[in-house]
Amino acid sequence: MNKTLIIIKREYLSRVKKKSFLLVTFLMPILFIGLYAAIIVLTMKSFENTHATVYVYDHGQDGVDELLENSKNLTFIKGEDDLAGRLAKLHSSKDNTGVLIISDDFYNSKSVEYISSNKPNVTIQSEIKKNLRKIVREKQYADLDIDLEKIQQVDDQVYLSAKEINLEGEAQDSHTNVAMFLAMGLSALVYIALMLYGTQVLRGVIEEKTNRIVEVIISSVKPFELMMGKIVGIALVGLTQFLLWIVLSIGLFTVGTTLFLNPESFQSLETAQMSSSMDSQMDTLPENIQEIIQAIDFPMILGSFALFFIGGYLLYSALFAAIGSAVDNETEANQFTLPVTMPLLLAYVLSFGVLVNDPHGPIAVWLSMIPLTSPIAMMVRIAFGVPIWEIAVSLTLLILGFILTTWIAGKIYRVGILMYGKKASFKEIFKWLKYNK
């Protein structure tokens, strides 16, 4: 046991003290927050830069060009000059300019042609179609002698308030959208973490085997103790990194909200009207956040995340350690890692569709019980609310799966760690499992 603790300490400290660990740990939250901020800013900027000038050439006699309405994205100009000349100018134009050609039987064919100076983006095309659909719709209403003003007074908007029954038997907002995004985020986080730190175990074993360090180590340490020491040591590295990410993310989020959502910070930059608008938004913001916190059991989610991450990591790390001991390099390891990680990849892919759409269905339940898929599947389901007994059964099966996997991996590790030069295969590994000594 003492030797295992020494190996755990060595694996932990050797990785935590690396500059790469410190850089990734402290820069990752900043990079993620900066990435999302850049996406939002660039997306808003792209919508601002989608304005196009459209020259309209109407070949009909119905005056469709007179009915087109300008918007913030489009400016329609009636084409008075020659169409061929305008198209010739488009070829050399660097501006977002286009030509809309309306056929003489537009109301029957409902087809137009749009030619632009470059590839027209989706927003421009959508705006043009929306404008023309409105014109066609109003023409058909007029032909059917339907009062357009009465049609516009019809309000078919339905506001659905999704609620769920809590333990006290009271209905409360369920905030399904928040749960869905939380589930998808957790599934991605678990998948990345298991693959990242499990692969570190694989590489560590291959490196020690290739450099013949392992021959010296196992002269005083049993192979199983060595395997468990590497697995637990790297697991502690992962947990340390995650805890630091959470603390740093919360700190950055708090600073960001204080800086950008504090009305006092806007008073020197914005007008009084903007400040009053910001005050009204701030009045409702804490209530919305409080409702979301009350509707979603964050302690249960975070606690379950830690348990399923540890269980999933131990299970897959044991498999990765066995693979690393059976091969001499990472290229050979690829033929074994793909079958091992397929269940995890399956659960991750299904989390974006099946598990989110039907978190309490039979497929989701079974995937959350199978040890190879439960670390991701159960985390997706927990965001939507899962009975405690199902979580307990899933964790129990995960622990039993880890024990079985560790026993199998130990038998492979014991033989494979000293095998050099001979290319391993599934048939050869199966023989190693039969060895009693």
From TrEMBL:
Membrane-topology descriptor: Multi-pass membrane protein
Pfam entry (one): ABC2_membrane_3
Transmembrane region(s): 21-42, 178-197, 231-255, 301-324, 336-357, 363-384, 391-410
Gene Ontology cellular component annotations, sorted alphabetically: plasma membrane
Subcellular location: Cell membrane
Domain ABC-2 type transporter transmembrane: 19-409
Chief place of localization: membrane
Domain of life: Bacteria
Listed GO MF terms: ABC-type transporter activity
Keywords: Cell membrane, Membrane, Transmembrane, Transmembrane helix
Name of the protein: ABC transporter permease
